[in-house]
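User: Hey, quick favor. My workstation is busy. Could you predict this chain's structure for me?
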Amino acid sequence: MAKKILLSAILMLATILFLPVLASAAVQNASIVNDATNSSVTLRYDVDPINAYIENAAGNPGQVVLQVCADNATADLSGKYGGFVYKTGNGTLFQHLAEKAGAELATFGSCDTNCCKTPTDYNLLSDYSVYTAHVYAVISDNSTIGSEDTFVYIPTTNGWFEGYFSLNDFGSTYSQTSGNVTVDVTAVYGRKQDNSYTSISTDKNYLILGICDNAVSGLLKWDCTSNAKTNLTAGSVSLSTGTVSPNDTITYTRYAVVNGIGSSFCIGPDLRVTGVTVVPSSTTAGQNVNITATVNNNNNVDVTTNFDVELLIDGTSIANVTVTEDLSPGESTTASYIYDTTGLTSGSKTIVARVLDANAGIADCNDGNDNSSTPLNIGKAYYVQVLINGTASTNFPIPGRPYNVSIHVNDSDGSNVAALVKITEKNGINLFAPIQNLSSGGGLSPLSVATFETNAGGDADLALIPLGNKLYLPEYANLSLSTLVGNYSLYLEIFNITTGTELQLSNGTSLLNQLDFTLGNMSVELPTISEENSIFVYNHDSFVQQIIDLANQVYSSIKKWTGVI
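Assistant: No problem, here it is.
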């Protein structure tokens, strides 16, 4: 509250110091006008040899004058002097731009009820009118300008010296300790008659700088806390913003003003998300991904309040990650989260990280950079449900007996899948190519592969007879079968019917290269008398019974051919 009272007092004092004529003259506005047409004029910059904004050059009118309008111009402005200056708001510094017979100001010589104009022999001078500007009018009791005179901002609609300034990144130079910023006018550009812009190289001490806000009467435009007069080669100027030791709960908009033209900057924090990464960026539904957001304080005030970074997938919030470390201007930190993609449908997703600074009461100089996004590609996972003799299982108790096997395939999107299924028995009993230790070196490893398709509902029913291999039992350890051809295995894989591409299996928590089955043991067990003829398998009468009969004949034939008893 003390600061607010002090500021109000300063503004009242500034009004007393700089607006005495305004109070009595009730000035409404001021303009740069073409004396011949009485219309406002935007002056263009004339290049060599003049290098200035003056009359009768660069397409400018032959005679430019100042026009000031008041409640009663005849009464209020009669006997007063007027003229043009470079100025910045209520700062005390100025530079006159025109003269009449060596005098900085000229008496208003032509008045009607509303407005008065300076005489036509009050002219802009090429020695002074050298820089781009929003020009100010000055109203005085005499021909010499003083800080006690009345200054009136001329808006661009009422005429100006058209062009622009290039400045350094002055906002980033703000010091929280001193409250100062460093301003450097790096270039000035004037607009020529052909509407192009040219660099102004004239180096005179006519650049009027200020740090201001615009919470002031429109007749002054700028309310400034500091003021300086400089030139193009002088380098940077340190100026006070009037704001010292701010916290992260409020922002202040200030302007670096040069010759009446303001460039805004913000005093306060600016939390932004500079990037978000997802590792891996392409995965299968049900897998974990690591989401990391990088958060930076992109402005000039420390952030000391904890805040959250919200993570979203396709607009749905999945987590808030709290950042507890302080961030000085320019500093960055990261917020990470491990996300389980279970339940996500396949396709490209958009991960968004956004700073919830407002929720934490942190002010923000730029809300437009609070978000960042990155894509995440989710591939389908495929699930296989297996029933063995009507029970969900992947274990066949004993080899050499027929089993009813039901297969169902669906995906992580919840759809049933028509798929190509392969069930492979590796290194089992195989009479086409028995396991062998080849004289050429190495072993022969047999595969028995069952290939079939599930229907549109993802289902298939079949009979399987795992054969196992007794040679893997400890009593045959001397054969070193695992060393020769590897271990026995029985497994399932699925493929796209059309392309043959292998589909990614999952058990719901982990990705699988294949779905493994187990055998209860490797020894064939004959059925008891009561168990004989008790099994009726899928497709029993469609090939299965005939194949079993033929297999029996084949085994018998092989035994006789080889003399195996």
